[in-house]
Amino acid sequence: MFEFLIRPGSFDLFLNIGIIILKIAVVIGVVMLHVAYATYFERKVIGHIQVRMGPMEVGPHGILQPIADMLKLFFKEDIIPEKADKPVFYFAPIISLMAALSSLAVIPFFDGFVIADINIGLLFILALSSLGSYGLILSGWSSDSKYSFLGGLRSSAQVISYEIAMGMSLVGVMIMAGSLNLTEIVKAQAAYPTGMYAIPQFLGFFVFIIAAIAETNRSPFDLPECESELVAGYFVEYSGMRFALFYAAEYIGMIIMGSLAVTCFLGGWTIPAFITAVLPFLKYVPGIVWFALKLYVIIFFYYWIRATLPRYRYDQLMAIGWKVLIPLSLLNIVITGIIKIMVD
Amino acid sequence: MIPLHWYLWLGSIVFCIGIFGFLAKRNIIIMFLSIELMLNGVNISLVALSHYMQDLRGEILVFFIIAVAAAEAAIGLAIVVSLFRNRTSPHVDEIRELKG
Amino acid sequence: MLEFFFGYLSLVIIIFSLLVVLSKNAIHSVLYMLVMFFHVAGIYLLLQAEFLAAVQIIVYAGAILVLFLFAIMLLNLREELSAEQLTDGWPASLAVVAGLLLTLMLSLGGFTTTFNGSWSPEKIKEITFTKALGQALYTGYILPFEVASIILLVAIVGAIVLAKRRLN
Fold it and tell me: Residue B51: which of C47, C55, C105 has the nearest Cβ?
């Protein structure tokens, strides 16, 4: 991991660091743009599903709405509750955002484009997603308010429970690919007959998608922040820019979970070989297009679910996590292991 | 190449800080954290020795230590919670009588 | 360069371990502990044990410390800030710890190992640490592995039994 730092020749060193910084800037810029427009499309999609128009005022069809929202949040007053634990209150949204942004470092967006191509990429993402829960718990605790405290407690229990199911649903992929490196997982899928692991690993894929919704605190599992009973949950005391940081972290988390689903289950930047055999011209489409298309489908699925399903009750949520998803993912591991041994 | 004894020094400093916390603090939660500190000091030494001896046994031991630490934290905190049901103080030096 | 990384990591580890022990607020202690765990994971990376670094963060930071936070928040320890933090006998424990530390520092100085096993850094790098550890765990250490799983099961059952209120 630190090889580039001990290699002789300082020019190489600066060149390498420069390239890495450039890559980071590109990735963060593109992702932030996606975050801004993910909020816009969420409102539009949900609006049309509920037979209304969504935002229409700012620009044609409300296309400039995210920019207006950003400016509004930027100029809002930053209110800090008097009895809040100030250092923790300041750091909580930063922890949330940092955990979400760091995960982007190991995701291969197309062949050869990944900021840090490390051996344990999958574990790195799991580690950072478990760190994300700190932002929620600490913001809930430090605000010194009943609603945000309850939201923080709920989120800590929920995120820890669903992390287990999510991690174990990915074990099947690890067994099939024989690697924790995300680039190699994608390459192993391209070499596999179906071209994506979602078909043989349908059980793991199902568990992963549900656990990912709970992990990002999205509806129908948005109990930590449900408006109607907790007024907004853990970030009720936050305003202005600090609120925007939580909001951005939530959408980046959504993009990370979507990207993880794309790289681990849907073949990443590749398309299945049997499709290119029928339609050979599709081979010339650059990989980033496939990656983005698959990601947009998953994000659309998130919106669709949010617009369709009512919120779960808290005990139902826990029962689904512990009594359905974890046994299912264990079953998936056993089946995958048996098949792997029989094939070898 | 970093000399091996630097890692061992680091491990022993963390271990000693952990012992001090365990012996001297009154708050039972901090005492549990100090146990985790001690385990981390030992883990650093084990991984370093394992790397320098080119043998995986130390690292396997660290893997098991982390698993057992998880079990220990779960049981320990459950004991703390049930302790709080009887008396609402986290201070260990106030828990003197055996009869609950 | 590696010495620089080691110096930074060990400095932060020592300072934050002290802060964990000396901080008055239990929640702040847990947060200092979090920072310290990350730097310990950095030490593991320097020692080529990347799987252990990931496990350190997933298990310690992601599970154990969250459990601590959960317990502190449920017990609501906010009023304890003004209370006396150390036991009456703390100078004695400080003396014991100082003696132990001095002994360890003096005896470990210049310690080197002569034994060389079969897992050289180049070999581990070739097949990756995760695979090497997995192969060792599932061949020579399968019995301890199973025992560890039973320990975890016992811990789950024990924690539920202890923390649950009596039913009647």
Answer: C47
